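Readers of this paper often ask what the protein records in our data store actually look like. The remainder of this section carries one protein's record, kept here as part of the documentation.

:::
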Amino acid sequence: MQRILIRLFTMLITLFGVAVVVFIVIRIAPGDPIAMMLPPGATDEDVARLRALYGLDKSLLEQFFVWFGGIIQGDFGTSISLRQDVLGLVLNRLPATLELSLFALLIALSIGGPLAIWGARERGTSIEAGIDIANGAALSIPDFLWGLVLILTFGVLIPVFGISGRVSPRLDLPFVSQFYLFESFFRLRFDLTKDLLSHMFMPALALALPLAAIISQLLKQSLKEVMDLDYVVLARVKGFSETQVILREALKNAALPTLTLIGVQFTFLIGGTVIIERLFSYEGIGNMAIDAVINRDLPLIQGIVLVFALLFVLVNLAVDMTYTLLNPRLRNA
C-alpha cells in the first residue's frame, strides 16, 4: 500500500510538472492564436475583446492559476478554433487512439513473441542471424515510412485495406460510445468490425513493426540468458523438447524484463500515433493534436498533452504493479 501511495504522489508531481512546462512552452512559441481567429479587417477592440474572453489579457502567472484551477475542477477550458469544451473534444477522440494503440500492441506481440522464441530455439544458426537482420531493418525504418509503404502496397497497388478514415461512412453506425471496435464486436455487428479492422490494420501495423522488433530482440536475449540455468537444464534431462523447455520453463522468467519494456514502449506508441493518424486521416487524438498546433489552439494543446501525460503515468503504474505481482521476490518483499 505504501508503495502505491508513493507512486500516486509521484504521479501528481509529474502531472503538475507537465502542466507547468506545456503552459510555458506553448506561450513563448511564436504565433498569436487571436490574430489567427480574426479576419484581416479586425479592429483593436475586437482583438482586446477576444483576449479578455479567453483570459489572454492577464499575466502568465494569473493565466496559469486560472487554467490549473479549472483543471482541478474538471474544466479544461474552451477550444479557440473549435469553440467547444476541450475535455469533451479530447474524450471524444481518445477511444479511437486507444483502440488503434491496443491493436498495434497486439500485432507487435503476435510478431515479436514468436520471432523471439524461434530465434532462441535456433540460437547460433543462420535462422537467428536472419531474425536479427529483420529486426534491424524494422527498427531502422520509422513508423511513418512504414505507413507510406503500406499505403502504396495495400492501398494503391493491391487495394485490400482502407487507407483513410476510421470507418466507411456508407455503413449504418449505431454506436452509443466512441469505442467503435469493441462496441461492434459486442453488438455482433461483424460487418462493422470487419470494416473497422480494415481501416485500422495498416496504421496499426505501421506502429507495430518497430515495436515488434524491440520485443523480439529483448525477449530473445532474455531467453538465451536463462537457457543454461539449472532448472532449464533439468527440464532437458527430463526429456522435454527444446520448444517445450522454452515455453514451459524459460519463457515465464525471461518475459519479466520484456513486460517492463512493453509498458514503456506502449506509451511511446500512443504518442507515435500523431503522425500515423494524420497520414491515414484517422480520427484520433493525434490527428486533432496536429490541427491544434497548426491553429495555435492553446487550451486544446494543453488538454491533449495533459491527457497523454496521464496515460503515460497510468500505464507505468500498471506495469509496476503487474511486475510486482509476477516477480515472487518483489511480491514477498
About this structure: The chain has two domains: 2-72, 92-330. The chain has a mean pLDDT of 83.
